[in-house]
Specification:
The protein has helices at residues 2-15, 44-47, 63-66, 72-98, 114-119, 127-133, 181-185, 203-214, 223-226, 233-236, 253-263, and strands at 20-25, 53-60, 103-106, 138-139, 145-146, 154-161. It is α+β, with helices and mostly antiparallel strands. The strands form two sheets. A four-stranded antiparallel beta sheet has the order 1-2-6-3, with helices on both faces. A two-stranded antiparallel ribbon has the order 4-5. A hairpin with a 5-residue loop joins strand 4 and strand 5 (145-146).
């Protein structure tokens, strides 16, 4: 029955145009693959007692739009993807509950505002770690979850369910190539040289940057995810030549013109 239910979930996700779906057993959180790891209070079974499986879904943020970031275009894309994630997570949880498996969805963000995040820079659940446990990718230096399909240009949400479902294996081959572009491009030097998990990202600096951009209708920042060379989306969009991010390279000219045009409108 569990295999049949998994197929039904995948079929439903396909009908909702969800490109990334992964399954992780809740007890996978209890065997830390690296340190520091997710504290017990933040784990699925602590949040929703009885959880057997975590279903993680992901939507990409389109590379050409991210390349204009920070911009009103990326700002609106981010809002749209967030709304799709919340709606989809709710629908999947409701679907499973209706089949006799009590389930809940966790919103893509677990904080009320950037101001709140500055005071306590952590959410009550990490979708990135859930995506890692569900085999959808692994971590890069910038503490972002890199996926083979989209690199870090993907947003996740999670569904906690009492259904015991076949799990996906954790992706063990590192995707991050240690190019350090994310470290160099960060406008507030929030990404440490040691990289995650050896050193944590400066979340206060990152949140402060987001707060400033939010006041100009430009949040989020997006700089560290747009310059990451990992992801098949680069091939899809014909943006494999990383010189496009080098301001003095002729290759960057058409991309820079597009970016400057978008940034000239729709925001403060």
């Amino acid at each position: 029955m569990s295999t049949i239910l998994r197929r039904q979930i995948l079929r439903k996700c396909g009908g909702m145009d969800i490109p990334l779906v992964g399954f992780a057993p809740a007890d996978r959180w209890n065997d830390p693959p690296f340190e520091p790891w997710v504290p017990e209070a933040f784990r699925p079974a602590s949040l929703f007692p009885g959880t057997k499986t975590v279903i993680v879904i992901g939507f990409p943020v389109s590379l050409p739009i991210v390349d204009t970031a920070p911009s009103i275009w990326y700002h609106e894309l981010y809002r749209t993807v967030n709304a799709e994630l919340d709606s989809s997570g709710y629908r999947i949880a409701t679907f499973l509950t209706g089949k006799g498996y009590p389930s809940v969805w966790i919103p893509r963000d677990g904080y009320g505002s950037i101001g709140v995040l500055k005071e306590n820079p952590i959410a009550f659940f990490s979708h990135r770690h859930a995506a890692f446990c569900a085999g959808l990718g692994n971590f890069g230096l910038n503490n972002m979850l890199l996926s083979p399909q989209y690199g870090p240009r993907v947003r996740f949400t999670s569904i906690l369910t009492t259904a015991e479902l076949p799990a996906d294996p954790v992706l063990k081959e590192p995707l991050c190539i240690q190019c350090r572009r994310c470290i160099r491009v960060c406008p507030v030097a929030a990404i440490p040289e040691g990289g995650y998990p050896q050193e944590s990202t400066d979340k206060i600096a990152c949140a402060t940057r987001s707060e400033e951009l939010h006041q100009r209708y430009l949040s989020p920042c997006g700089c560290c995810i747009k310059v990451c060379p990992v992801g098949k989306d680069r091939e899809q969009y014909g943006r494999e030549d990383m010189r496009m991010y080098d301001e003095k390279s002729p290759v960057s000219d058409p991309y820079r013109r597009a970016r400057d045009h978008v940034r000239s409108y729709g925001s403060r």
